[in-house]
Amino acid sequence: MIRKFITFLLVSILGFQAFAQEPQPPAQEQPKVELKDDLTRLKSGEDLNVLYRNEASFGAFIHSAAGIGISYRRGKHITAKRKRMYEIETQNFKHPKEIKSINPYFENAKGFVYGKLNSLLIVRPGLGIQKTLYQKSDKKSVEIRYSYFIGAALAFAKPVYLEVKDMDGNGEGPISVERYDPQKHSIDEIFGKAPFFKGIEKTTIYPGGYAKFALSFEYADRYNGLKAIETGATIDIYPRVIPIMAFNRNQQVFVSLYLKMIWGKKWF
After folding, report:
1. Confidence tier at 53 by pLDDT (50, 70, 90)
2. Does residue 7 fall inside a structural domain?
3. Is the pLDDT score of 215 beyond 70?
């Protein structure tokens, strides 16, 4: 009896070991399927619970100084709701007293702004912080963020050149291209504005600084994409007055409001 029991026990132990050593495919295949699904969701930007540490974007905006601008930004997360941002943007700037005119005394006359001394282009490289107020809860929701920037402001003042008629006794004469001089050129002899790039080599650069506050609304349908509407205010300060108009008070502090459309992407 004891011999039969020992034989049965040995057979059972050996059979259990053999069973334990056999491969079990179903238990190994399931995690591979889940891993593949996770990678697909990450690449397509469908996973909400992922923090993309980097982002880059382009923007186009209009502003209250009757002009337009473009920008580029690069951001990186410091914490889950806070990013360090680098930006560079450029915009034109018009004096509020600029009024386009056409001389009615000349046939086929061109448009010009009487009294305008310089065309102004502003370039701003800067550093900022962006914070999230309300995060996305799903694809159809909107993320609300605010940001602030400070940096350098470089104002490029290109002198205005005009096409001027050298009048003779009969009211006729050749057309010459000259830099506008309010002490020399009267409105009656201006035929129109010269080509924009005329005199670009005489551009004067005015260094200064800027500060900006912005509120943005991000609505991309992919979590690794970036689409946003941004609105804000910018102030540019220069140590010297920048001459834009001849017969009006010129400034060294410029304040403008803007509305911007932003497109970009995010990655790890």
Report:
1. very high
2. no
3. yes
User: Is residue 113 classed as helix, strand or coil in its secondary structure?
Assistant: strand
Q: Return the closest-CA partner of residue 162 out of 118, 201, 225.
A: 118
Per the CB < 8 A criterion, the answer to whether 193 and 111 are in contact is yes
What does DSSP assign to residue 138? S
Q: Are 138 and 213 in contact (CB under 8 A)?
A: no
C-beta of residue 232 within 8 angstroms of C-beta of residue 255: no
Q: Which domain holds residue 233?
A: 54-267
Closest by alpha carbon to 160, among 187, 192, 199? 199
Counting the structural domains of the chain, the total is: 1
Q: Enter the tokens of residue 202.
A: 């005489």
Q: What is the pTM of this model?
A: 0.81
User: Is residue 96 within 8 Å of residue 124, measured between CB atoms?
Assistant: no
CATH number at residue 75: 2.40.160.20
Handedness of CA 31, 32, 33, 36 (dihedral sign): positive
DSSP per residue, 70-87:
EEEEEEEEEETTEEEEEE
* 225-240 residue pLDDT tens: 999 999 999 999 999 9
Burial letters 129-167, b for 16+ CB under 10 A, else e: ebebeeebeeeeeebebebebebebbbbbbbbbbbbbee
In a domain, 42, yes or no: no
DSSP H helices in the chain: 2-21, 25-44
pLDDT tens digits along 142-161: 999 999 999 999 999 999 99
In a domain, 45, yes or no: no
